[in-house]
Give the backbone structure.
Amino acid sequence: MKPPPAGRLRRANPSSFAQHHFQKLPAINSLSCSGHNARDNAAELAVGRRAVTAASPWSLSPAALRRAPFTPRLVLPSPNGSAIAAAAGGSTVVAGCLRNASAVGRWLALHGHGTLERPLAVIAAGERWPDGSLRPGLEDLMGAGAVIAALQAAGGAGPLSPEAAAARTAFTGTPDAAGAVAACSSALELVRSGFADDVAIAVEVDASTTVPVLTDGAFSAGTRTYGSPLDGAVHTGPVHLMPPD
């Protein structure tokens, strides 16, 4: 399992967070199609953080989603995780972060992922600098490490690549991983921009037991896990993701 280089904390994994509140969110690959996709799926369209209005209360801000009224289907034009999900749609794709790492680890172990027979790639969805170069981020390293550590704790991982082992150690070896993420440069940038609540949500470690799984082009909250093996499973509909061009 190899987590690639990471990016910025632009969100508390909106796909996994939104899955806790909504039912459907499609993974598509063109921002120009966002409005059409929302209409085609009878869904609401999430807007940018600063574009929230009374008529469009759903946005890429997890805090705004928490305050927004319920909608069963949501198109989320995410600039990083959605693009990766759409590109990897031919594989089993699960959305994980600090908020649901333990649940994701249990789900992966239960389904036999992370073994020699079913190898797993842990991909830290990141962003880039304006010049197109990668912007590394502590938050994605910690998120990847949390998922890997949870998978190992559930008895489902190994052998780890050096990169995966380093990510796991970064998470398990940090006494206060949530505090470290809250104090990193990406989080401070969000705080200075007026989105401190988004940072607070991002560092709610294991606050969610939902495991979003990409199914037929949309993330579905197909499983909610409370222990190992899975118990209390809850089945809901998908959440639609769309990366911009």
The mean pLDDT is 76. The CA atoms of residues 203 and 218 lie 25 Å apart. The first strand starts at residue 25 and ends at 26. Strands lie at 25-26, 44-45, 74-76, 127-128, 134-135, 210-215, 218-224, 238-241.
